[in-house]
Amino acid sequence: MKNNHHTRITLQTLNTSSTTGILSFAAQRLRCSLGRGGIKSIKREGDGATPRCIMPLLWVYYRPDRLSRPKTRLPTYPLNPAMGWCDDPYDANYNKPVPWPYTASAEHLWRDDHIYDLIVVLGFNILPNKKHCGSAIFWHLSREDFSPTAGCIAIKKNEMIKLLEKCSLKTKVAVC
Question: How many CB atoms lie within 10 A of CB 29?
């Protein structure tokens, strides 16, 4: 049986200060948003940069009140209003999912806008976890105007849904 699940998504820009890029996967080339700090080889907490590295796709979160569970070979979990992600480098749960509200600084994953209706958690600074090296690096939905992210990668919803069908735990994002 032929394996149609590709293993590499490549993200390229014309320069490291760019806040948009082209995400290539198989024969597809899609516009994406990047961090307001461009792309950096040395990522630091709060710099707004998308890390230049190769990251595995770990799991998917989705808003069940806004869309159906996406078809994918990745582990998939519904979001709920009590979910957050710790971005406090001094906290023991730095760069991990946490309950919301949380005592330390944390991002609320249940947002009023739609950019977190679908989130792929990328394997950046998770295992091992290094303090101050960046947190909450996700692949999520873009805003209509493709405005910059806080360091994540973002594409249009319909494109994300189609790409997730071809993704598995073997898929990695290479930011060049």
Answer: 11
Residues in the chain: 176
Task: Give the pLDDT confidence of 132-167 residue by residue, as tens digits.
Answer: 999 999 999 999 999 999 999 999 999 999 999 999
* Cβ-contact 134, 44 below 8 angstroms: yes
pLDDT tens digits, 90-114: 999 999 999 999 999 999 999 999 9
Domains of the chain: 8-175 (2.40.440)
Q: Are 130 and 164 in contact (CB under 8 A)?
A: no
Q: Is residue 65 classed exposed, middle or buried when 0-12, 13-18 and 19+ CB atoms within 10 A define those classes?
A: exposed
- Residue 11, classed as helix, strand or coil, is strand
Nearest to 135 by CA among 107, 95, 99, 173: 95
Place of tokens 């082209």: 22
pTM, rounded to two decimals: 0.95
Quote the DSSP letter at residue 69. P
C-alpha distances out from residue 170 to 4, 42, 173, Å:
12, 25, 10
Tokens 């078809």, located at residue:
71
